[in-house]
Amino acid sequence: MLTGGNQLPNKEVTTYAADGLTWTDASLWQQFDAGYEASPDTLALVEADGRCWSRAELHHTATAITQALQKSGIRAHDRIMLEGNKTAPTIAAALAISCVGAVVCPYTPDLGKAERQVLEERLGHIALISVSEAEAQPIPGAHGLRLSLRRRHEPRPLDEADTAAALIGFTSGTTGVPKGVMHSSAAMNYTVRACERVASLEANDSIIGVVPLGSAPGFTFTVHFSQALGHPLVIVDPWDALRALQMMEQYSCRWGICVPTHLVAMVECAKSGQWTSRSPLRALAVGGSSMTPDLLADAEQLLGIRALRMFGMSECMGHASTLPSDSLERRQHSDGTPFPGTRDEAFDPDLKMLPRGARGQAGVKGPSLFLKYCEGLGGQEYRLTEEGYFLTGDEIICGSDNYLKVVGRLKDQIIRGGYNIDPAEVEAALQRHPAIETAIVVSVPHARLGEQACAICRIRKGYPPLQLSGLTDHLAVIGLSKKKWPEHLVIVEEMIYTATGKLNKKLMQKAAISSLGLG
Fold this sequence. Notes:
By secondary structure, the protein is an alpha/beta fold. The chain is built from 14 helices and 28 strands. It folds into two domains: 387 residues, Rossmann fold; 102 residues, 2-Layer Sandwich (GMP Synthetase, Chain A, domain 3). The strands form seven sheets. A nine-stranded mixed beta sheet has the order 4-3-13-12-14-15-16-17-18, sandwiched between helices. Helix 9 links the parallel strand 14 and strand 15.
């Protein structure tokens, strides 16, 4: 194992157990390094172009990046932003960040300028690793990765969560500011061990990597899952359903995670005759609200894929799932049972725990729960019950058999194909358009994506009619990520208000759906 003055020396590992599941708080690097020492020539990952990397090759690249970080003065608990490209060098950089005891903060390469500016101002990171920062310095031996340093200010006080953090993932917040979700190695180890057990994975079974790396779940279920547990990661990038099916077959992938749109596209490959083989997957975890019973049935009948609904979010990654042994009907109409050591309960508006069978707000408590939000990046949204349950904003029903079902959502977010869009953030961006007097953003139904975003706007007097193209041009100029742009625009003469003077989003949403012919 590498040694150095900035690294956490010989971190003692603690073992945990719950209902037959065991996991530790070992870091990503500690686990990968142990696997490398045991079997250096074993396959570690397959890049999107088909290049295979052994553990030794990945270890060599990670070592080079580690040395560059140490020479640059990176210390334990420093935060390092990492451009989440789905490549071997990026994964090696994540290993190196873990090796020096720093905190990896992955972000999507298409992060909007406005969000990037917020993170630059509030995250307090010491460095950034990317391929796109032209002014950054190349990292020797890192295959095109570049390192840019930020000025180190006075040391910030570290609390227990700061010292335990190994990952900070970013997700949309209800105030328009990204939330920085902090996770420990123990939390990541727990959730990937639980998924490994759900799928009955064996040593060196490959997993398919189709989701982006720039979120806590995306990073955990690809990079951490594969390199901590020793399962070769087979990367698909950019997304192509036929290519994904081919890679799964070629490398005998046994597990993967995706959003419903991925599964829809793979099913379409079978329906169109492009794909006729049976998938080697033992299980495919699918998160997102747009899963339909027909989609799960088609996946099993046409592809041989047992798709498992999984309940999770950035704050509590993958904490409940259906099982491959469950009947199709069970998998179609349930979001599973909590992982060992995790509890999901429904709460009433007064935050009192409801009896089984009652509908209420979801609260979750367990080993995969996040540590906290970063300072200035979501802290005001942290809600716990007196019993320590994190309130997710979803509505659930917990059955007497311990199976649960997500039946609604309290929080006002739009989930387009598994991607969360914060209406408040988009509304704030729309209000900066000179022609817009008032704007709201609501969800409208979409057969494939589940939901799309619709902007409902009132135009100022004296301005010409506004088209959707003009709206998106404005959003591009101010730097809002394209993934958050509305697909629909409805112009109204008057906004609708409640008796208390608040914008009545529900009525306007209903009217917009009707006017667009989507009802």
